[in-house]
Amino acid sequence: MTAGVSRSTIKDFECHRHALHRSSEDLLVRAFEMRGVQLLFEGDETFGVRLLPPLNGTHS
């Protein structure tokens, strides 16, 4: 499963070259949630994760 975001976009974000566009962020968050990873936010900052059953019912 892919999030629909290019590798270069993710790499640039990880290397602090630029911030994510809101649409790219939404795609990434949704992809994590589909696999059972909930990002926990406080204000504008991500401060942790919670593991949940995947939304699509699979673990692979």
Structure commentary:
The chain is an alpha+beta fold and 60 residues long. The protein has one domain. Strands 1-2 form a two-stranded antiparallel sheet.
Short description:
This protein has 60 residues and is an alpha+beta fold.
Protein traits:
60 residues, alpha+beta, two-stranded antiparallel ribbon, 2 helices, 35% helix, 22% strand, globular, Lambda_DNA-bd_dom_sf, DNA binding
SSE layout:
Elements: H1 7-14, H2 22-34, E1 37-42, E2 45-51
Antiparallel strand pairs: 1-2
Average pLDDT works out at: 87
Cα gyration radius (Å): 12 Å
Q: Helix-strand pattern, N to C?
A: HHEE
How large is the count of helical segments? 2
- The tally of strands reads 2
